[in-house]
Amino acid sequence: MRKIFEIGFALIMMPTMAFAQQNLRTTETTPDLPPYAAIRPYWVDRPVVEVIGQANIEFAPNRANFTIKFFEVDTNSDEATRRVTDRVRPGLERARLLVGNKGTINAVYSRTILYEQYRDREGNRNENEREDKISSFVAYWEIDVSLTDMNLVSAVRAELLAIGGAEMTRNIEFELNPTPEQTRSVIAAAVNDGYEQAKMVASVHGMRPRLLVFEEGRTQCLASATTRPVVAGAPIRAASSELVVVTGSRIRKLTPEEMTMPISPEPVELSSSVCMVYALEQ
User: CATH number for the domain including 137?
Assistant: First the structure.
């Protein structure tokens, strides 16, 4: 009985062992492809020139962002909220009509608490942060504006500032979201720059250039198989020099037309760098 068991166990294990041995032989005989160390560089047997084409082109920004804040102070939280909301709503609706589908306007509400103050033994003034020592509440509406039409920036800003009691303490941020056409134009300019460099080198030796390799990025073509692009896909910012702080009741007498001020955003520069390898031929 023992012999029959051992024979049966051996028969069961034979296919598995045979498969393992076959797989082992296959693994051992499979070459490591491609054998990078054995590849002969393509530029060894022919004269080549490597050039880095570069281009910088300025474009007008196509997006503007700014924030205007309004607030009211009252001893009653709900009353502060009602007053600031009633004051902001009409001008905000008019601004929305101006913007249309050329941007977005978002209103964010917040509230802070002002506490009664007291002096400590050293004479420093401190806030008594206890519920029974609340002095008043400050209700805020913060209006975030993002525009894709630069011709609307002045009008929308004036409409919101004319509400009165506005606080705008940050620069208008102008950005460039490059279009595919703009991106391609910068790359094309870099390619042309690289070609002109190669043609200049070839002419010195009485030869003409023929393109072998083109890669977008900074890395040298002969040193690496990959590159990193430098044409930015994310928005590129160019902050304006405008800084506006508007407070006080006198602004309530001004109309949006009177509050309109011209803007002149600076252009934004897009850059591209391409690596090109040319064969030099007779």
Answer: 3.30.70.2970
Lowest mean pLDDT among 104-108, 175-179, 250-254: 250-254
C-beta atoms surrounding 153 within 10 Å: 23
For residues 138 and 115, what is the distance between their CA atoms, to the nearest angstrom? 11
Q: What angle do CA 173, 85, 146 make, to 5 degrees?
A: 20
Higher pLDDT pick, 165 / 15 = 165
Is 96 contained in some domain?
yes
Q: At 51, which amino acid appears?
A: V
Given a cut of 50, is residue 7 above it in pLDDT? Answer: no
Q: How far apart are the first and last CA of the chain?
A: 87
* H-run or E-run covering 135: strand 134-147
pLDDT for 117 equals 74
Structural domain of residue 257, as residue ranges?
63-177+241-266
Pair of tokens at residue 44: 């060894």
pLDDT above 80 (res 278) = yes
Q: To 10 degrees, the CA torsion angle through 164, 166, 172, 178?
A: -80
User: For residue 249, what are the CA distances in angstroms to 174, 194, 215?
Assistant: 30, 61, 61
Interatomic CA distance for residues 137 and 112, integer angstroms: 6
